[in-house]
Design brief:
single chain; 164 residues; alpha+beta; 2 domains; seven-stranded antiparallel β-sheet; four-stranded antiparallel β-sheet; 1 helix; 11 strands; 42% strand
Length: 164
C-alpha cells in the first residue's frame, strides 16, 4: 500500500473516531440535562429568605391545598413542574365555590362525589405568589412529603414558589 493511501486511511479513521467521540459526548450531555434535578424554592420575595429548597425532577406534581377564606371549604390545586423550569397549573378541586376560584363554565370540568374539578388550559408560569396564614392553612404536598407553609410565620406571609 502506498504512503498516500495509508495516510488517507489514517485520516478517515481519525475523523470517524472524532465523530464518534463527539456524538458520545453530545449523547451523555443530553442525558445529564434530562436527569438534571432542579430545586423548588419557597421564599419570602420581599427579603429573599428561603424557607425550603426541595429537590425535584421535571414532571413532578406539586399539590397546594388550603381552606378558602370565604367559603371555608378545602381547595386543592395541582401543578406540574416542567422541563424548562416553569410551573404549569393542571387542576383546581373544591366542594363549594368561593371568590377567586375558577368558574367551571369557562373551562373543562367535572363533578364527582360532590367535588368540582376544573382542568386548566393556562400556559406554564415562572412562579406562584401567595399569602399564607394559619387561618387558611396552605400546605404543599410533593414527592410524598408535606410542607405546611402556614406554619412559617405567626402572621400573614407572602411567599413565592419557583424552580431554580
Amino acid at each position: 500500500m502506498s504512503t498516500n493511501k495509508r495516510y488517507r486511511l489514517i485520516y478517515v479513521e481519525v475523523c470517524l473516531i472524532l465523530i464518534i467521540l463527539l456524538a458520545a459526548a453530545l449523547f451523555i450531555s443530553s442525558c445529564r440535562e434530562d436527569k438534571e434535578s432542579r430545586h423548588l424554592i419557597i421564599q419570602d420575595p420581599r427579603n429573599e429568605t428561603i424557607f425550603y429548597s426541595i429537590p425535584v425532577e421535571a414532571d413532578d406534581i406539586l399539590t397546594l391545598s388550603y381552606k378558602h377564606s370565604v367559603s371555608r371549604s378545602m381547595v386543592e390545586g395541582t401543578f406540574s413542574l416542567t422541563r424548562n423550569g416553569k410551573i404549569k397549573p393542571e387542576t383546581t378541586s373544591y366542594t363549594a365555590y368561593g371568590p377567586g376560584l375558577p368558574v367551571e363554565r369557562y373551562v373543562e370540568w367535572k363533578i364527582e362525589n360532590g367535588v368540582i374539578t376544573v382542568y386548566h388550559e393556562e400556559e406554564p408560569r415562572e412562579s406562584i405568589r401567595l399569602w399564607v396564614t394559619d387561618i387558611t392553612g396552605e400546605t404543599i404536598y410533593l414527592r410524598g412529603q408535606q410542607y405546611p407553609l402556614f406554619k412559617l410565620s405567626d402572621t400573614y406571609l407572602l411567599l413565592e414558589i419557583f424552580l431554580d
